[in-house]
Amino acid sequence: MKKKVLSILLAGTMVLSMTACGGNSGSGADTSADTAESTETAADTTEAADTASDSTASDSTASAGAIRLLNGKPEINDQLKELAELYKSETGNEVAIETIGGDTSAGDELKKMYQGDNMPDIFVIEANQAATWDGMLADLAGEEWTDKTGFELVDANMGTIGFPYTVEATALGYNADILSQCDVDPSSLTSPAAWKEACEKIDAKKDELGLTAVFAWCAEPTNLGWSSGTHVFGQYLDAGLKADDTKYIDMLNDGGTIDEARMKDFAEFVGMMNEYADKDHLLVDGTYDEQVAGFKEGKFAFITQGNWCVTSPDDVSFEVGFAPYAFEDGINTIIAGPPSYWVAYKDGNVDAAKAFFNWCAGSSAQDILVNKAGLVSPFDDCEFEATNPFYKSMKSYIDAGNYSGWHTMLKKDGLQNETCQVFADYAKGSIADADEFVSKISAVIKSYYAE
Description:
Number of helices: 17
Oligomer: single chain
Distance between the termini: 39 Å
Helix content: 25-40%
């Protein structure tokens, strides 16, 4: 895995009050503390699992090594519970897993916990949420695990604050069998013209192949706004750029400025996805479950998600891979890196949290996280190759250096809850074309950054 330290200098405009935590991001994405994956991968809602029994970890009678971990990825709840059991058997220390996600906002839950003086020792944040917790997170610099990865989250004020529990990628996932039957080479999809030709070929064989549509793309804003407002929008910010290139996120965070020419190219690509999507249902009012299930069942050639949507070889009967959002000629990158991190609450059991992080970077924990939870390890010495079906394609991009950063996680927190509505209106047809999309999203972004 290529080394890439994510150092962030969060401007004062990104400092949010504690009451700003949360937001309308639905499952897994980009509201305060909704993880790209929580909400990205959120399919089944597992709300505050075992809260009653887990809360004993914070009782005064709890052992010195007992900690509570607030997990924002409900799809790996069972695996983390298994991880906790193994941790106790190997170390004698306890970690209580409390899971939220799905239709529950991790940010809202954390706000309640903070106000109720019931904060977990470990919880999940995205990079742009670090400022929200300024002064409240432990510095993890010098811990053993930091020598095994270049993906730790470093903040200018607080130091090394984020433990990368996984590396994730997002692009346009594809069904290789469908592409092969339609004579489409995914490696050729590096220009708008190539994409248009591919869509036409696949659409022409839609009935023959039993497809619902070319794209499993859902712009529903209430529960899937994190997908359009964070991950799809993130392609405008980073597609085609090197991992350390922050040109467009810097423009965005400088008062909400966009590159209108690039945004128009992006909007035209999204318009193509709208054209070849399931307009009768999924595009406008579908759900994450329906989107992912349809792709797994072979009803769509492409899906607008990431490696979290297919985590086991048993999930699909076909090979999968990633293709870039090539809305400009020559774009050949996917977005890859840690979209979120585990952090240690400064007033919690910091020593026990640090010990847990060091253990998690080791072989016992990595076996569960990689082989059972389907995560991609961020650690250079991990002996396990990810079982995730997207891993082979994902690794090929990373090894070639053809990956962009998760800079969408550095935009002003909550912006996704506004931009997702623009995607929804475009999908519904109330935004007529790419020019109007650019005008609308530019106004929305400017207004949000002016607040």
